[in-house]
Write a structure and sequence with these properties.
The structure holds two protein chains of two kinds.
Chain A: E1 3-5, E2 10-14, E3 19-21, E4 24-26, E5 33-38, E6 44-50, E7 56-58, E8 64-68, E9 73-78, E10 87-94, E11 104-106, E12 110-115
Chain B: E1 4-7, E2 10-13, E3 18-25, E4 31-37, E5 44-50, E6 53-57, E7 64-70, E8 73-79, E9 87-94, E10 104-105, E11 109-113
Classes of the chains: A mainly beta, B mainly beta.
């Protein structure tokens, strides 16, 4: 069965330091992976996705993610964190079940707190 | 422009009321979705419309009734809701032609059922 895990409920980082939000996945075929961010009392905003090609994917707001097939991971990274990056981050993978290719399987989310 | 709009932003309703949530996109997307999200939890898929036809219903109670009047609009009709239905209701849309399609979300309607 397809699944996504975000092993950390919360990540704390100081402003200006690099940040990493972890995501691991399990799929039966090629993975289609997505990162979304949700600011307080807001909808979900798309950050980036991995479909194929380069393992390092660049996205919005200076975020990037590294796809690692051997470790089945897709960690979200940013070289220098901002206080405004404080939000809830969700990793998701496309469900491969026949007829359900529009469904996303979501991780439980990681709350990122960037301290000034 | 990757904008999905939703109205109203907030809604308070009693358990006997009938109300509707509205969603609109002008990106030419042919798939539209309703999700329910509880606080600090991932969104839960409720319905998927593809080319204006209902393609997925995730066993949602009949007190929630979706409608897709055209390719740009999606409604969710609410009737006889329960307090546990209080949540953020998110609409999303996507191109709907490949596995790599991205779902773009609206800001949501925060619903409180009294």
């Amino acid at each position: 069965a397809q699944s996504v895990a975000q092993p950390e409920d919360q990540v704390n980082v100081a402003e200006g330091n690099p940040l990493t939000v972890k995501c691991t996945y399990s799929v039966s075929g090629n993975p289609y992976l997505f990162w979304y961010v949700q600011y307080p009392n807001r909808g979900l905003q798309f950050l980036l996705k991995y479909i194929t090609g380069d393992n390092l994917v660049k996205g919005s707001y200076g975020f990037e993610a590294e796809f690692n097939k051997s470790q089945t991971s897709f960690h979200l990274k940013k070289p220098s964190a901002l206080v405004s990056d404080s939000a809830l981050y969700f990793c998701a993978v496309r469900d491969y079940n026949a007829g359900n290719n529009r469904k996303l399987i979501w991780g439980l989310g990681t709350s990122l707190a960037v301290n000034p | 422009d990757t904008e999905v709009t939703q109205t109203p932003k907030h809604l308070v309703m009693g358990m006997t009321n009938k109300k509707s949530l509205k969603c609109e996109q002008h990106m030419g997307h042919r798939a539209m979705y309703w999700y329910k999200q509880k606080a600090k939890k991932p969104p839960e898929l409720m319905f998927v419309y593809s080319y204006e036809k209902l393609s997925i219903n995730e066993s949602v109670p009949s007190r929630f009734s979706p409608e897709c009047p055209n390719s740009s609009l999606l409604n969710l009709h609410l009737h006889a809701l329960q307090p546990e239905d209080s949540a953020l209701y998110l609409c999303a849309s996507s191109q709907d032609n490949s596995l790599q399609e991205t779902q773009y979300f609206g800001p949501g309607t925060r619903l409180l059922v009294l």
